[in-house]
Specification:
This protein is of the alpha/beta class and 475 residues long. The chain folds into four domains: 132 residues, Response regulator (Rossmann fold); 181 residues, Rossmann fold, CATH 3.40.50; 85 residues, Helicase, Ruva Protein, domain 3 (Orthogonal Bundle); 63 residues, Orthogonal Bundle (Arc Repressor Mutant, subunit A), CATH 1.10.10.60. 47% of the residues lie in helices and 12% in strands. The strands form four sheets. A six-stranded mixed beta sheet has the order 1-3-2-4-5-6, sandwiched between helices. A five-stranded parallel beta sheet has the order 8-11-14-7-15. A two-stranded antiparallel ribbon has the order 9-10. α4 links the parallel β5 and β6. The radius of gyration is 30 Å and the shape is elongated. The protein starts with a strand and ends with a helix.
């Protein structure tokens, strides 16, 4: 008979003809935070169950009626090579143990098994299974030309190859329960990526997001872990923490680099032991929520400065996603602009304005320190000012000029003045020389695009062409 509660994700399968052994082992595992347990007391049902269900580990008894564990072990490993098998038997024989290991068993436990030994063996087996699945998924994704679950990424507007590669990686790590670290600049879309990870993982629980920037340890503990009634002054009722609200789902912690040292220690325990304490309680609670974190900081630099724990960093970056800034995916700017124009027009009750080709040239040359969030703000402001006809470029020009006329962020201090410096050792420059210098500088910064250069100069493209033609004729 199969005893299968409602489970999500890969399950652990206990196979033994003794119901008391099955019950006792299940209680031990659940007490130690190992869930998704299914039991079978008839060995004939094992292979059909494996064929229809997602199983990570089989704990197998050797001596059973109908079909023994010795017979089943080679069949399991041949047909389901990724499933890890732990033999648990009352037979303490060296030859039997060696035979089982040769046939693919990961471990050999002799009944009665001490609780720490059993739990350790199960956790090791689950880790190995997850690693095998991840490697297999990565190989499959690298060979694929398309995303499998496109619906999960529908909220992310992109045609960038870099972003498509990230989508494939997300699909490859979806089935594991390991934490994910997302790094990227402010406004690059880290929460959208975290939400996509949750959707692709097909987890039954909720996606819960929390920004922990500037949060002190007390607020962090109360928000994430909750508190019992009377835990502190003013705690008139119990509070359910976000970790519990995200049970079976995903919790997203943004700005993880701002986490205080005491809070880092508590988060590390949650990752290592899958347990936490409510404020005012001495009884640990278990968590099966997947943890996804994000930062716009250099955590390696923080570690060097003793601001971030090394053990927490390496635990968090089991899987890591480096999100490219908007300036490195300029092919997405037309798509994003069109979507923001539509959103802004709907929100303001206006007819969607039509952009010009020159607008996309101008936007492509900007460096976007605020990334997608900044582009959205620029578009919404332009639509708010829009009256009729084609969308004016004036608000875009004004904004870009106010930030330094498309000057890259990486320009060192004083570089702007040096770039605009004109050699005066041989006398004061003429107006013609100044004009030629400024035009050449605009063309250089726009990559030779005359439409963008004209926008930077505050003149029309035709006026720039006229000046260039006049200069060429003079030569």
């Amino acid at each position: 008979m199969i005893h299968s509660p409602s489970v999500s994700g890969p399950c652990i399968l206990l196979v033994d003809d003794d119901p008391q052994i099955l019950l006792g082992t299940s209680i031990i595992l659940k007490r130690n935070g190992i869930s998704n347990i299914v039991t079978i007391d008839d060995s004939r049902e094992l292979i059909p169950f494996l064929s229809k269900n997602h199983v990570s580990v089989v704990v197998l008894d050797l001596s059973m009626p109908y079909k023994s564990g010795k017979e089943l072990l080679p069949d399991i490993k041949e047909v389901f090579p990724n499933i890890q098998v732990i033999v648990m038997t009352a037979v303490e024989e060296l030859d039997t143990a060696i035979s089982c290991m040769k046939n693919g068993a990961l471990d050999y436990l002799v009944k009665p098994v001490e609780e720490p030994r059993l739990v350790s063996a199960l956790k090791k087996a689950v880790d190995i299974f997850n690693l095998k699945i991840e490697v297999t998924s990565l190989k499959e994704q690298l060979l694929k030309d398309r995303i499998t679950d496109e619906e999960a990424f529908a909220d992310i507007i992109t045609q960038s190859k870099k972003m498509k590669s990230i989508f494939k990686y997300i699909e490859a790590i979806a089935l594991t329960n390991q934490p994910v670290l997302i790094s990227g600049e402010t406004g690059a879309g880290k929460e959208l990526i975290a939400n996509a990870i949750h959707k692709v993982s097909c987890r039954n629980g909720k996606f819960v997001a929390v920004n922990i920037a500037g949060v002190d340890d007390a607020f962090f503990s109360d928000t994430l872990f909750g508190h019992k009634k009377g835990a502190f002054s003013g705690a008139d009722s119990s509070r359910i923490g976000l970790i519990e609200q995200a049970a079976g789902g995903t919790i997203f912690l943004d700005e993880i680099g701002d986490l205080s040292e005491p809070s880092q220690t508590k988060l590390l325990r949650l990752l290592q032991e899958s347990e936490y304490y409510e404020i005012g309680s001495d009884i640990p609670k278990r968590s099966d929520a997947r943890i996804v974190v994000a930062t716009n900081c250099d955590l390696k630099q923080f570690m060097a400065e003793k601001k971030f724990r090394k053990d927490l960093y390496f635990r968090l970056r089991t899987h890591q996603i480096d999100l490219p800034p908007l300036r490195d995916r300029v092919e997405d700017i037309p798509l994003l602009t069109a979507q923001f124009l539509k959103d802004a027009a709907n929100e303001m009750g206006k007819k969607m304005p039509s952009p010009t080709v020159e607008l996309f040239d101008l936007l492509a040359a900007y460096h976007y320190p605020g990334n997608i969030r900044e582009l959205k703000a620029m578009v919404f402001d332009a639509v708010a000012r829009h009256k009729s006809g084609l969308l004016s470029m004036q608000s875009f020009r004004s904004y870009i000029c106010s930030t330094g006329r498309n000057m890259p962020e990486t320009v060192p201090a004083g570089a702007k003045d040096r770039d605009l410096h004109i050699e005066m050792t041989r006398g004061f420059p003429t107006l013609k020389e100044v004009q030629e210098h400024v035009i050449n500088e605009a063309l250089k910064r726009s990559g030779g695009n005359q439409g963008v250069a004209a926008s930077l100069l505050g003149i029309t493209r035709q006026a720039l062409n006229k000046r260039l033609n006049k200069s060429n004729q003079a030569e």
